[in-house]
Specification:
The complex is a heterotrimer of chains A (about 800), B (about 280) and C (about 160). Chain B contains 12 helices and 14 strands. By secondary structure, chain B is an alpha+beta fold. Chain B folds into 3 domains: about 5-55, Uridine Diphospho-n-acetylenolpyruvylglucosamine Reductase, domain 2 (2-Layer Sandwich); about 60-175, 2-Layer Sandwich (Uridine Diphospho-n-acetylenolpyruvylglucosamine Reductase, domain 3), CATH 3.30.465.10; about 180-285, CO dehydrogenase flavoprotein, C-terminal domain (Enolase-like, domain 1). Chain C contains 5 helices and 5 strands, in the order ββαβββαααα. Chain C has helices at about 20-30, 85-95, 100-115, 120-125, 140-150; strands at about 1-5, 10-15, 50, 55, 70. Chain C is globular, with a radius of gyration of 15 Å. The chains are: A alpha+beta (about 800), B alpha+beta (about 280), C alpha+beta (about 160). The interface of B and C includes residues 2, 34, 42 and 106 of B.
Chain lengths: ~800, ~280, ~160
């Protein structure tokens, strides 16, 4: 007999987070205020590259309501060091310093040069406008390939180069394989720059208590712990124990809030200098410049294969745009994809090489998938190119190349040991779900009729690595922190549970998911469990939230801590029931004596006993409280098959997604509704990358796509419904069998869409399509194929 | 972003608005729904020192028959124009175009007159009005005047409205039975401005086109008439070959922009396709 | 300038500068933080609220333009602990992730169902075209609106 009536893991428990969010009562960073607070506004460079000849803040000080204003040089003495990168991927990495405000030179449009503090938001804006900054423009570096040529203009003159690093990985005898392979396919792709555009702009409130020298930073962040240690130890030079960082509700992150920012640094320093709290909220028009951008890779991928299309070797060269500076994990983002340019396919040789390049653009860093969407795009496009070369159909070529199906670990050519995979299973289901035969028939019919609107079908069979990460692997990749995470579970005297966890959410439903795990582990109803996160004063140390790690690392820590609770409770229960621990059976919160099931103790009862401590066994401390820290042994490897059918209007180039099927295997599913929500959201974000979104600069380094009017984040009327299904193959990396699902949709979908567009036009001879596949691009491809003017 | 400081005054009537504009000079601007002006003010690209609010001039919010025309008051919300039964009966083209401006929130606030007065060549209502040879009713310090659409739209964000003028109404013709219409709005996202838009009004007569008026959105500094198409259509047979041939004249005289949504060349080619589709749809009604 | 507005059934007064938007008045002066600022350009719908019964982007309504008018915000939907049926449907359909777009989305969805009790998927998507969401991909939001419609007896 158990405490709770039924198991809740695997069921669609309604999210506990929702009532607060849905009524507008949830508090995000901009909703918070402190008495006497000042509003902060940065003055941003309008130039992509210029020497700063002067910054005069005195006109700002004349604006009513402005209390203080500083140029970069005025605050230069405040910084213990520049905003660091946490991922120096090579020993010879070139990492030019970026400070919260520029002093001598600006290197991207949007780099901060001055800061204004005022009594109101309006006064801060008026003050910022009044600051007079003079610039001497310098040559602007935008094209990555040009930037790498000898004699190119330099983003950082003192480096002598625009290359930050080159990182390589080689497995097997790549040269021999490529030299002897009968078929070699070479493709070039560009993964265009993205603006993450979470709905909530970054925002913060910084407070300083002078008597105790204590700082509190409330900020819209994915990484409260990392912000704390980095700001304290590296940027501000203050004791780490004197800085509290907390994330209230965070309105979306997607990687864009993995950041130790100029604004956070400035606000803390200015709170101390002025003795008043400092509030800052990014507005959308500055956010597009100052929150980091993403992707932006030029990819060359080669596949060496047998005549029948069996792949033997992979060779990839990437040029990755770092932007003007290296941010927290920016240099490492391409490396997260480094092992996956072979997808879920086999082979005996693999080479990957990536050069990170500086340009005068907004710096880049993580965005949903971080390196893995780029990798999946390249291999899924290239395998279609291989299929065309050897005359095989895209389904056939994938099946013949899949890694062997396995419930347990097997090696992949990129060097990973993937935890489990049945790739044909997800593909079979996806073919059925999308109605593949029917679509092909329709495609044939329309081609015969010569319809203006043609259909194309595209595939993406992917595998990804997430659940970041085994700490020693991170060490070998030169990442400056670890990949473990922690949980502390406390059962209160009344039997309610509080779980303090290291990871923190931005919409993923952590509280509900962890409550489900704990409910089954401890037999406590979901509603009696509180999950505390996001506050460095309350949460255990942890490595924060990104890389689909919350469940497969954070959740496992939660589960292990719960196991330790049960272990301790068993001792107490056995002692109270005067039996040995082995004589007790435990089911969901209830210990009962084998053979005498009415003699029992529940977790709440034990918690009360542990609290009164009147009769504890020898060696057992009071309180029912336990912690666990989990460092995974391996990544986890979700995989799946996505199939997209598009309709292309060949007269205008307009592309509409007709049907989309996503079949994913994300291991054990804790909450199916939350999982499906992540799949849908991820897929749509990837469809947006394929069809709508591109960050575009003009030749002066001015960002042209500077608002939601021209940076085309799609609305509900622009995107399809998708069909979703699953297979479940538990991960062998952790005892819950869970993988991750936060990024799979965005990783899988772009190549499915672009492959579909190419397929729609294949009868015209089109084999190439850039992304996003805008109407004009599609139209031009058609014109070119027809031999017409393009 | 927050607008630069300004003063706010509310007009109690059209004449009051005209007087306030006179009083405050060139730096004063009218605001109604605010969806054209306020975003610009937030980016500080527009910095009027005084806003004269005409949003509440409800006596300018109407759609009514006026002889063989329909008169639309300037402060009529886009959503009301879109839902108007009078227009559904007598000139569905106007209602249709209004119903595709922006999104629901925009249509609940944006006024028909505001859109027309703003003079944005990428905006739909001006194109439709140009194709309909509509008339704009304007009140100014010298009294009231009527301006034909061809004379009203003068350039990029430039209309015949002087600094003290208030657009009070727009008059569109009732379409006779036998007149087909179409508005083709080509855009990437549903809420986007048209990359290219085409308004077509086609009068049939015995299997031929008696007369056609074609308006183009976002093919120049102001809405344009595709006169080459119109000339080619006069008296032409209402059959696919003739329509396609006529549509080939669409880009003549245009100077479409090149921007992140499309190049000038693409817009020119697109205009041919959209004009043809507009004609096909108009003739099928 | 003093602006007097009837907000969620109650007359409220605020002293604002001419450039204050209805959104900033609600948030900064009237303590109604549910309506969100995600772009302040009328492009995202997170600030959606009712003005005289019509759903508008409150960031593009000057506070002064709301003088004497009826404003209704997300805070008006729930009745104490009891969620509004549209809110309940969002919760039951799993249509909420980070929640930042949610108040505006719920306002727009409620408005749709008040006008069209049985909308098709296409009509739902069109009605919500002014409300951007970055987390959900809209799928479960559309499900939620259809669920609310069917519960109210409007759906098949």
């Amino acid at each position: 007999m158990a405490q709770t009536a039924e198991r809740v893991v695997g069921t669609e428990v309604r999210r506990k987070e929702d009532p607060e969010l849905i009524t507008g009562q949830a508090r995000y960073s901009d909703d918070l205020a402190a008495p006497g607070m000042l509003w902060m506004k940065l003055v941003l460079s309008p130039f992509a590259h210029a020497r700063i000849t002067s910054v005069d803040v005195s006109p700002a000080l004349q604006v009513p309501g402005v209390v203080a204003a500083f140029g970069g040089r005025d605050l230069a003495g405040e910084w213990a060091g520049p905003l660091p990168t946490a991922w120096p991927v090579t020993d010879d990495l070139k990492n030019p310093p970026m400070y919260p405000l520029a002093t001598d030179e600006v290197r991207f449009q949007g780099e901060g040069v001055a800061v204004v503090l005022a009594e109101s938001r309006a006064a801060a804006e008026d003050g910022a406008e009044a600051v007079v900054a003079e610039y001497d423009p310098l040559p602007v570096v935008l094209d990555m390939e040009e930037a790498l040529k000898d004699g190119a203009d330099l983003v950082h003159a003192d480096l002598g180069t625009n290359a930050s690093y080159t990182w390589t990985l080689t497995n097997g005898d790549v040269d021999a394989v490529f030299a002897t392979a009968p078929v070699v396919v070479k493709e070039r792709y560009v993964v265009q720059r993205q603006i993450p555009a979470a709905m909530e702009p970054r925002a913060l409130l910084a407070e300083y208590a002078p008597a105790m020298g204590e700082y509190t930073l409330t900020t819209s962040t994915q990484i409260p712990h990392i912000v704390r240690v980095v700001l304290a130890a590296f940027v501000l030079g203050i004791p780490e124990s004197k800085l509290r960082v907390r994330a209230p509700n965070v309105g979306g992150g997607f990687g864009s809030k993995i950041r130790v920012s100029p604004e956070e640094s400035l606000a803390l320093v200015l709170a101390r200098r002025t003795g008043r709290p400092v509030k800052w909220t990014g507005d959308r028009s500055s956010d597009v410049l100052t929150t980091h951008h993403a992707r932006d890779q030029i990819q060359e991928i080669e596949l060496a294969a047998d005549e029948d299309g069996r792949i033997r070797g992979y060779r990839t060269r990437l040029i990755a745009n770092m932007g003007a500076y290296l941010l927290l994990v920016g240099p490492g983002v391409p490396l997260l994809g480094a092992f996956l340019f072979c997808g879920p396919y086999g082979g005996e040789a693999y080479h990957f090489e990536c050069t990170g390049v500086f340009t005068n653009t907004t710096p880049t860093d993580a965005y949903r998938g971080a390196g893995r969407p780029e990798a999946t795009y390249a291999i899924e496009r290239a395998i279609d190119a291989l299929a065309r070369r050897v005359g095989r159909d895209p389904v056939e070529i994938r099946r013949m190349n899949f890694l062997p199906e396995s419930d347990g670990p097997i090696p992949s050519p990129g060097g990973l040991t993937v935890d489990s995979g049945h790739y044909n299973g997800t593909l079979d289901k996806a073919l059925e779900l999308v109605g593949y035969e029917e679509l092909r028939a329709e495609q044939r019919a329309r081609r015969e009729r010569g319809d203006a609107k043609q259909i194309g079908i595209g595939f993406s069979t992917y595998i990804e690595m997430c659940g970041l990460a085994p700490s020693r692997v991170l060490g070998s990749l030169k990442y400056a922190a670890g990949g473990w995470d922690a949980a502390r579970i406390r059962v209160l005297p009344t039997g309610k549970v509080t779980a303090f966890v290291g990871v923190s959410p931005h919409g993923q439903g952590h509280a509900t998911t962890f409550s489900q795990i704990l409910s089954d582990d401890l037999g406590i109803p979901v509603d009696d469990i509180e999950v505390v996160h996001g506050d460095t004063a309350l949460a255990p140390l942890g490595m924060d939230t990104y890389g689909s790690r919350s469940l497969s690392v954070g959740g496992v820590a939660v589960h292990r801590a719960a196991d330790r609770i049960v272990e301790k409770a068993r001792k107490i229960a056995a002692h109270e029931l005067e039996v040995s621990e082995d004589d007790l059976e435990y089911v969901r919160g209830r210990f009962s004596v084998k053979g005498a099931p009415d003699r029992a103790r529940t977790i709440p009862e034990v918690a009360f006993s542990a609290w009164t401590a009147h009769n504890l066994p020898e060696g057992v401390e009071p309180e029912l409280d336990a912690s666990a820290v989990y460092d995974p042994e391996n990544f986890v490897y979700p995989y799946g098959a996505h199939i997209c059918a598009v309709e292309v209007d060949t007269e205008t180039g307009q592309v509409d997604v007709l049907r989309y099927a996503a079949v994913d295997d994300v291991g054990t599913i804790i909450n199916p509704q939350i999982v499906d929500g992540q799949v849908a959201g991820g897929v749509i974000q990837g469809i947006a990358e394929a069809l709508f979104e591109e960050a575009v600069y003009d030749e002066n380094g001015d960002l042209l796509t500077s608002s939601l009017t021209n940076y085309e984040v799609p609305a509900a009327s622009d995107v399809p419904s998708i069909r979703i299904d699953k297979t479940v193959t538990p991960s062998t990396t952790n005892e819950l069998g869970v993988k991750g699902v936060g990024e799979t949709g965005t990783i899988a979908s772009p190549p499915a869409v672009i492959n579909a567009v190419v397929d729609a036009l294949s009868h015209l001879g089109v084999t190439e399509m850039a992304r996003p596949a805008t109407p004009e691009r599609v139209w031009r491809a058609i014109q070119q194929a027809k031999g017409g003017a393009a | 972003m927050i607008p630069a400081p300004f003063e706010y005054v509310r007009a109690e009537s059209v004449d009051h608005a005209v007087a306030l504009l006179g009083e405050h000079g060139e730096d004063a601007k009218l605001v109604a729904g605010g969806h054209s002006l306020l975003p610009l003010m937030r980016l500080r690209l527009a910095r009027p020192s005084v806003l004269v609010d005409v949003d509440r001039l409800d006596d300018l919010a109407y759609v009514r028959e006026a002889g063989d025309q329909i008169e639309i008051g300037a402060t009529t919300r886009m959503a009301e124009v879109a839902a108007s039964e009078v227009l559904a009966t007598h000139n569905p083209l106007v209602a249709h175009a209004a119903g595709h401006v922006g999104d629901p929130q925009v249509r609940h606030r944006g006024t028909f007159g505001g859109s027309v007065a703003h003079g944005d060549p990428a905006s739909d209502p001006p194109t439709v009005l140009l194709a309909l040879d509509a008339q704009m009713v304007v009140r100014g310090p010298a009294g009231e005047r009527t301006v034909a659409a061809r004379d009203f739209f003068k350039g990029l964000f430039e209309t015949d409205l002087g600094p003290q003028d208030v657009l009070t109404a727009v008059r569109v013709p009732k379409l006779s039975t036998g007149t087909g219409w179409s508005y083709q709005k080509f855009h990437r996202r549903a809420i986007d401005w048209a990359i290219v838009g085409v308004a077509a009004v086609v009068e049939r007569s015995n299997g031929s086109v008696a007369r056609a008026a074609i308006g183009l959105t976002n093919m120049g500094l102001m809405p344009m008439r595709a006169e080459g198409v119109e000339a080619a259509l006069a008296g032409a047979a209402a059959e696919p070959g003739a329509l396609a041939a006529a549509a080939g004249h669409a880009p003549e005289g245009t100077s479409p922009p090149s921007d992140t949504n499309g190049s000038a060349e693409y817009r020119r080619e697109l205009s041919k396709v959209l004009v043809r589709r507009a004609l096909e749809e108009a003739l099928a009604r | 300038m003093l602006v007097r507005t009837r907000v969620n059934g109650e007359w409220r007064e605020a002293d604002v500068w001419p450039g204050a938007s209805l959104l900033s008045m609600l948030r900064d002066d009237l303590g109604l933080l549910g309506t969100k600022n995600a772009c302040e350009q009328g492009e995202c719908g997170s600030c959606s609220a009712w003005l005289d019964g019509e759903v508008v982007c409150s960031c593009l309504v000057l506070a002064a333009q709301a003088e004497g008018r009826e404003v209704r915000t997300v805070e008006d939907l729930a009745d104490g602990d009891r969620l509004h049926p549209v809110q309940q449907a969002f919760l039951d359909a799993g249509a909420v992730q980070c929640g930042f777009c949610t108040p505006g989305m719920v306002v727009a969805a409620t408005d749709l169902l008040e006008r069209d009790p049985d909308p098709s998927d296409e009509a739902v998507r069109e009605a919500l075209s002014g409300n951007l969401c970055r987390c959900t991909g809209y799928q479960k939001i559309v499900d939620a609106v259809r669920l609310a419609a069917s519960r109210a007896g409007g759906g098949a």
